[in-house]
Amino acid sequence: GAGVSQSPSNKVTEKGKDVELRCDPISGHTALYWYRQRLGQGLEFLIYFQGNSAPDKSGLPSDRFSAERTGESVSTLTIQRTQQEDSAVYLCASSAAGQEPNYGYTFGSGTRLTVV
Amino acid sequence: GEDVEQSLFLSVREGDSSVINCTYTDSSSTYLYWYKQEPGAGLQLLTYIFSNMDMKQDQRLTVLLNKKDKHLSLRIADTQTGDSAIYFCAESISNTDKLIFGTGTRLQVFP
User: Fold this and answer.
1) Do β-strands B9-13 and B105-110 pair in parallel, antiparallel, or remain unpaired?
2) In whole numbers, what is the pLDDT of chain A averaged over residues?
3) What are the backbone dihedrals phi and psi of residue B36, each rounded to the nearest 5 degrees, phi first?
4) Do B101 and A100 touch (CB under 8 A)?
5) What are the backbone angles phi and psi of residue B82, rounded to the nearest 5°?
6) Residue B104: left (phi > 0), alpha (psi -120 to 50), or beta?
7) Chain A, window 16-75: residues with a beta carbon less than 8 angstroms from a chain B beta carbon
8) Could you tell me if A102 lies within 8 Å of chain B, comparing CB atoms?
9) Residue with more model confidence, A2 or A103
10) pLDDT digits 0-9 by tens, B56-66
11) Taking CB atoms and an 8 Å limit, are A4 and B42 in contact across chains?
12) DSSP code string of A65-96
């Protein structure tokens, strides 16, 4: 597709349930990033995939969070046993990594997650 | 640690100039960026500056970089209502493709 696609755009879930958020990057973009944006706050780095390298998971806030990516395609961010503090917009971006400046960072519109 | 700070709000009258400020911590950042986020949308790259530059101008946008003080600013000339959005600065982390974003500044333009 022409841009980064995220689904669902909105998700309301009950506390304690698991959720899966999907990101479909731009074709050919080797790098994929997940960020979290809480209300009134900046973007918090979660995880970064680059090609076949081991992902940089240094931003994942707890072991309830995990993400997978198959090759250079779709990524899924999974949050287990959701808590109210997980409520946020989850943004995905992709880029043709290794090029500076990193203007290849294209963001999706995000998934707004509300845990009730 | 890596930390990028911005003021949270800025309100300006249409036609005036807006100046959005940012401080960062990684002195080895190669590039610094400004992104714009409109309601319900993702972030769009507005402009960037290489760390060995002091200033970059792009139409109504002027970026100023004070590397000694690790201070970055974005000036929008002749601000329009369509400029109302959240503006994020970001620094690149050396030897990675990761960007660290600031808290964002919400710009409100009133007639």
Assistant:
1) parallel
2) 91
3) -120, 135
4) no
5) -70, -10
6) left
7) 31, 33, 35, 40-43, 45, 48, 50, 56
8) yes
9) A2
10) 999 999 999 99
11) yes
12) EEEEE-TTS-EEEEE-S--GGG-EEEEEEEE-
